[in-house]
DUF2388 domain-containing protein
Amino acid sequence: MSDTRPRMFAFKNYAYAREDAAAFVASEGRIHGAQLERAWQDYLVSSEPGSRLEQDSFALEVLVGSAM
């Protein structure tokens, strides 16, 4: 639990992309909104290469993290 809690809070930083993340997930990756793309690029720059999520997993984490 202690490992996931900081991670959830980290994804709250991308709450601005929640609607785009929902569209991305619902469309099975066909809809790429500008806010999700910005969040994705920020995430790639700020994360460690070995611990990066795939974009579909990232979008799900944005949805979960911004709902909390």
